[in-house]
Design brief:
Largest sheet: 2 strands, antiparallel
Strand order of the largest sheet: 1-2
Strand content: 15-25%
Order of helices and strands: EEHH
Number of strands: 2
Helix content: 10-25%
Number of helices: 2
Radius of gyration: 28 Å
Length: 124
């Protein structure tokens, strides 16, 4: 079996957590086998001890769900991004940086905190 799956994917950006959609095409190729039969054509149970057994046809029907799931999951990005330029979220307060690119926090190195008390005696 071979074919192409045309998908509309909805995900959340891994940087800014905003939902977004995109179009994806996934190529599918899979081998299927007929079930084992005896001389009279009766299906017999057989143990397939191979590490990765081929899927079996069921009355000339094939179950595409596992094939489609495996192909789509392997083709999806691990960390989807709404755009390559996505700035993400502020690590301190969680503000979306695309909404406020000038967003900043005044940070003081904790190693210098004792010296700040010497220059600002009312800060205690």
């Amino acid at each position: 079996m071979s074919g192409t799956a045309d998908l509309q994917i909805s995900a959340e950006c891994s940087r800014c957590l905003e939902p977004f959609d995109w179009h994806e095409e996934v190529d599918l190729t899979e081998l299927f086998r007929y079930p084992a039969t005896d001389a009279r054509g009766v299906i017999v149970e057989e143990e397939d001890e191979s590490e990765d057994p081929l899927p079996v046809l069921d009355d000339d029907l094939i179950d595409l769900q596992p094939v489609l799931r495996d192909a789509v999951v392997l083709d999806l990005p691990l960390a989807p991004l709404c755009s390559e330029e996505c700035l993400g979220l502020c690590p301190q307060c969680g503000v979306r940086l695309a909404d406020d690119p000038q967003h900043a926090h005044e940070t003081t190195d904790p190693r210098w905190a004792a010296l700040a008390a010497l220059t600002e005696p009312d800060a205690q």
